[in-house]
Amino acid sequence: MTSDLVLTGISKRFGAQNAVQQIDLTVPAGAFFALLGPSGCGKTTTLRMIAGLEEPSTGTIRLGEQEITGLRPYKRPVNTVFQNYALFPHLDIFENVAFGLRRRGVKDFKPKVTEMLDLVELGAFGKRRPAQLSGGQQQRVALARALINQPQVLLLDEPLGALDLKLRRQMQIELKRIQTEVGITFVHVTHDQEEAMTMADTIAVMNGGAIEQLGTPAELYDLPATTFVANFLGQSNLLRATIIGRAEQNLIVDVQGRKVTVPLPRCRVTEGDVWMGIRPEKVFLSRAGTEQSNGVNQLRGAVVTDVSYVGVSTQYLVKLSWDQELTVFEQNTGARGTLAVGDQVDLHWQPAHTFVLDAQQDALAGVEDIDDSGGAG
Amino acid sequence: MSAVGQLGATTATPAPPSEPKSGRRLTAYLLLLPGGLFLLLFFVIPLVTLLAASLYDPNGSIENGFSMTWHWQNFIDTMSDYARPFGRSLWYALLTTAICLLLGYPLAYAIAIKSGRWKNLMLALVIAPFFTSFLIRTLSWKLLLSDNGFVVDALKWLHILGPDGRLLATTSAVVTGLTYNFLPFMVLPLYASLERIDKRLLEAGGDLFAGPFTTFRKITLPLSMPGVIAGTLLTFIPAAGDYINAQLLGTPKQRMIGNDIQRLFAAGAYPTAAALSVTLMAAIVVLVLIYIRRAGTEDLV
């Protein structure tokens, strides 16, 4: 029923500004696909080009066999859930949902609308106006209004952005359930990495009009390809290092005089200066001088400089001998008492959790708030 | 307010909770006072005088004074004498409103939705005529449409107008003048309501299989109805009472009820003029009420 959505060499210029630059993208039929990135990264522009609301400066968009690049929006088998919903204020909920079916001259649309309103649990609200509904209800009307047309691709532009946190979590699960149920391709634009990771099968991380990395949430998180992805999806500790040699399937990396090993497939560059990265929850702390088994990466002689207790976990800031601070998350399993500020500690982690990135990239790229960047530097 | 409120609070032993509220209410009345007084002096009193004058004995004169005789016959007499200019006024006003809507809607739409960076300039051009007096502008139309004017010459040369055809002193000239003079009153409210429409609603229409025309019919037009209603009222009401355009651009054949009222007042026939004024006012109020009722009051606010 649905077919792959393929973007080839898509660019969009607004005056002198390149909003989107040479994007190639394939969204498989039936996928829940997320375009993730900070504001101004070109994700919404990309979505609007798929919807037909913007015309690409270069490139083509295909939907299965059909090229839709130049097709007017109302001729595309694509529907959009707009940011802030764009519900028609002069029509009641029933008429809002029936709008698309009426335009296509579908006969006997009434039972379909009723059924769709029931699906989003708004059966009793058909006669109300959009202004009389809460944000969450409006969101579901917007979803129903788009889904009822059974588009080949459903586009969602920050659909949960206007909802409060609790409602957002609820709608994330709800959206995922509906997507599985209807089997339509969803392309979801968001700046919220957690939202993208919870819902999407595949995420394209966008930055500066280009795709930084594409993959499943686990792939992106486990092995980020750029410092931007490493910082934008979760947090990362990035340390200046130099590759000094190779042992079997591992590269030997020098971090301020200490040797660390990284599996070869986890290295984006294989020689010269690099960023060595490790996720905060992958690092273990032990009291100074504790012996570790062979084969783990270690950095000795660090001092705890900050302890934040968050209930399920504790977040430590740990200062290394060359004054760089790393972030460490530790689950509060009770295996060891919490450490205190000033404690001498050693750090260790698995080589298989380490990643190596190009040193040319900015270590702070993708850090959302400069104030939290302590662990990223 | 605070001074009064505090005085009250100190004298009454357990300060009653309603005290600050009544102080606030007093402020509200004080704020209403200047406007209220103005309306009383320049609207209510003249209105009552007008209503009274419409019931004076028509045989009185300015020299001898008029006596109040509750002469209801005035209304019947004036309606039989002035039915034609009365009907003509409403007809011209209706024509003017219709033409203003046809000309004004596309213009307002262009300014509100399509103009981009030219928006302010275009709005300024709509308002620009107000920098010149209404009277002067209408006199200019008289020159423009005159028998020796270049417009008539050009139309004759193009054989659109017959050799003895003329523009001035015709119904078209009066309606054209009215349309010209009241067009901004149509355009501005239309612009305001079109400008307020969230452009994403139009995109949503396109996204939901509505072509440009359907999107206009189903979304833009219904959402701009408050502007349409306001614009048509602001055009129709003053156009129905206008007499300058008929005076300067028409002949006695085109005379509107305003011309008669003005003439009658000038001639000192106060009861007749007042009765005509009251009838015109009542007719407009009734028409407007019916119109608003039918168009849906909900959209007006």
UniProtKB/TrEMBL annotation, chain A:
Keywords: ATP-binding, Cell membrane, Membrane, Nucleotide-binding, Translocase, Transport
Annotated signal peptide: none
Family matches, as InterPro entries: AAA+_ATPase (IPR003593), ABC_SmlMolc_Importer (IPR050093), ABC_transporter-like_ATP-bd (IPR003439), ABC_transporter-like_CS (IPR017871), Mo/tungstate-bd_C_term_dom (IPR008995), P-loop_NTPase (IPR027417), PotA-like (IPR005893), Transp-assoc_OB_typ2 (IPR013611)
Class in the EC hierarchy, top level: translocase
Pfam families in alphabetical order: ABC_tran, TOBE_2
EC number(s) given by UniProt: 7.6.2.11
Protein name, entry field: Spermidine/putrescine import ATP-binding protein PotA
Lineage per the UniProt record: Bacteria, Bacillati, Actinomycetota, Actinomycetes, Propionibacteriales
From TrEMBL, chain B:
Region (Disordered) residue spans: 1-21
Limits of the ABC transmembrane type-1 domain: 86-291
SUPFAM superfamilies: MetI-like (SSF161098)
Gene Ontology process terms (BP): transmembrane transport
Membrane disposition: Multi-pass membrane protein
Gene3D superfamilies per the UniProt record, alphabetical: MetI-like (1.10.3720.10)
Keyword Repressor found: no
Key words of the record: Cell membrane, Membrane, Transmembrane, Transmembrane helix, Transport
Annotated TM spans: 28-56, 89-109, 121-140, 167-192, 223-244, 264-292
Cellular compartments annotated: Cell membrane
Family note: Belongs to the binding-protein-dependent transport system permease family. CysTW subfamily.
The protein's name in its UniProt record: ABC transporter permease
The organism of origin for this protein: Kribbella capetownensis
